Amino acid sequence: MPPTNRLALITGPTSGIGKITAIELAKRNFDLILVARNPQKVAELQRELGNHVQTDFVECDLARLSSVREAVAKIKARYSKLDVLINNAGLMMDHLEISPDGVEMTFATNHLGPFLLTTELLDLLKAGDQARIVHVSSEAHRFGTFRIDQLAQPATFSSWGTYGNSKLANILFSNALAERLQPFGITSNALHPGGVATNFAGQSTGLVNLTMKLIRPFFKTPEEGAQMTIYLASSPEVEGVTGKYFSDLKQKKPHKDAQSSFLANKLWALSEELTRN
Question: Which InterPro entries does the protein's record reference (predicted)?
Fold first, then answer.
């Protein structure tokens, strides 16, 4: 018999709010596709999740478009539908680094890789049951200085500015998807999880890392931070709700730039150009 559980894909599920999201969705009888870079960490998570739901590991480095394409090919070979896609993985850099595809690393990991993953899996989502797409953004989107020509290869680098631009891109992408996918009954929403005490920015070594260590004691626990993602992925209260931005389990108005259809369309065009084979 075919599986009766809903199927959710989570990027970055091995730590922080991604891990809590995976655990809680498994408790809600979701089968899970765990998209991550580290096989050992995924194996540990799978042991923790147990056998009452099916879990599948697909290796992927979101900063490498070739890796995203390989992951998509594996997912399409194994599955004919997808009910929930959670773009959770993200990073914050304290220095300028360029991806193998020639794109600034923050933008590559937080937006461009998820853009390619999501758009390549739309056929599976269309075959899903009232499918949902959930984007983990941040209130840091208000720090961005959004210039389309500076996203992939910025002339100057700022940790918070670059991160803010990537989080603004998350909301613009979510809104663009909501508009395009509404005829198919697929919803797309973005969220702010709150300041969460995780190893986020752990790859940073400078002022960013020091700042995060100082303020981390005042943050939410990962369990608290994951509630918004879990809510958008599974709650019947948001069935049919699309193109919105959420914080603390309620809709919130994002920055005016995040509401711009013009910027959303420009970002989509740039993303298509950058991900073209």
Answer: NAD(P)-bd_dom_sf, SDR_fam
The HSE-up count of residue 58 (CA atoms within 13 Å, CB side) is 23
- Give the residue carrying structure tokens 């720090």: 143
Question: Cβ(47)–Cβ(21) under 8 Å?
Answer: no
6-271 carries CATH number 3.40.50.300: no
Residues marked as catalytic:
163
For tokens 């049951």, name the residue: 129
Dihedral over Cα of 265, 269, 275, 277: its sign: positive
Of 45, 253, 268, 255, give the one whose Cα is nearest residue 145.
255
Tokens of 35: 């998209």
- Lowest-pLDDT range of 88-97, 143-152, 197-206: 197-206
C-alpha 35/C-alpha 22 separation (Å) is: 11
Neighbour-count burial of 102, counting CB atoms closer than 10 A to its CB (0-12 exposed, 13-18 middle, 19+ buried): exposed
Which tops the pLDDT comparison, 179 or 209?
179
